[in-house]
Amino acid sequence: MTVTDRFLEYVKFDTQSDEETNLTPSTPGQMKFARYLKEVVEQMGLEDISLDDNGYLFATLPSNISEDVPVIGFIAHMDTSPDMSGKNVKPRIVKDYDGQDIVLNAEQDIVLSPEQFPELLNYLGQDLIVTDGTTLLGADDKAGIAEILSAVAYLQAHPEIRHGKIRIGFNPDEEIGLGAHKFDVEKFGCDFAYTMDGGALGELEYENFNAASAKVTIKGRNVHPGYAKHKMINSIRVANNFITMLPRWETPEHTEGYEGFYHLVGINGTVEETVLSYIIRDHDRDRFERRKREIEHLVNKTNTEFPGCCSVEIRDQYYNMREKVEPVIHIIEIAEKAMRDADVTPKVQPIRGGTDGAQLSFKGLPCPNIFAGGENFHGRYEYVSIQSMEKATEVIVNICKIVAGE
Questions:
Q1: Active-site choice (141, 174, 282, 394)
Q2: What's the pLDDT tens digit per position in 241-288?
Q3: Which of 1, 122, 242, 354 is the most exposed place for a label (fewest CB within 10 A)?
Q4: Would residue 174 show up in a list of annotated catalytic residues for this protein?
Q5: Is 67 exposed, middle or buried (0-12, 13-18, 19+ CB in 10 A)?
Q6: What is the Cα–Cα distance from 276 to 307, expressed in whole angstroms?
Q7: What pTM, to 2 d.p., does this model score?
């Protein structure tokens, strides 16, 4: 079974996560997928297989050498983003991409074009898996799952390749920031691990955003509009004023590299009450803390004009893993060599986002992030290169070789 076959099978499962349920996994589709994967690893003959009630699936490929080498892990998440539906995904393979527009859905005039997505031109001559324009694809992170299991199957089929003990872990709810919360690091039992959850070919990341969510609640006062003068407080208008007080240029669409931002991800409002949902991101921990204080300052400023109407709940989600990975920088060097051995140029760069590896690193499992091959995650224009998935599989195998001393 090729990595492509695996991937096309996995995207059939609807595993969209949901931050509103307060359950783990947050949606039943994730547990259904986990049970399926458990059957897969059982059929592969892996050992120490466990699937807990929270949807965390672990398994082991035993060592085939006598030497004592580090136990390494490979991790991917089973959920897809709540930003767009992952139900009834209809993938299509575009063979030998020619650099032209790809019509995803003629009826709805949905087109994947290099004019809007110039990185498409990096994939000339490659085979791309795309959507039909009505759902996301699910390469984030079912490509990672397919690559990990394909690499394990390759090692099983080639016993002449020396490797130590390898652990694999598939978890729920990464997309809502909860993937590592109930991940049992002690049970996983690795010296270090890699998440296969990055983007384009060659990406290798051990710096990520510090991240928090902020829920700003604004209480209004509704009065009949014909008699509202000096009485009504329209929470929607107050919320609009709050939004405009944040720096206009410190948003995702105006930032790059190490620049942080405030991102308004949701508004739900009536005259009586409006709730603003923000995410706060910054690579620098001091700037991150200042951003949180700025939100609190604007809440207090709003309450000066409208006493007691505004409140905020800020929740830290994860921190920059760099401080945990740098003391064991050799695990980055291993990944770089594994890429070069696969004729892949390593691209070490900060993640403008987060990964389960960040939280796992702070739980005692250093866990940088490696490319899975996809582009345009979380939306209808998502695609993945088959050749990139094949290279990611090769990189995993190479890491296992290097750690075993080959």
A1: 174
A2: 999 999 999 999 999 999 999 999 999 999 999 999 999 999 999 999
A3: 1
A4: yes
A5: exposed
A6: 18
A7: 0.87
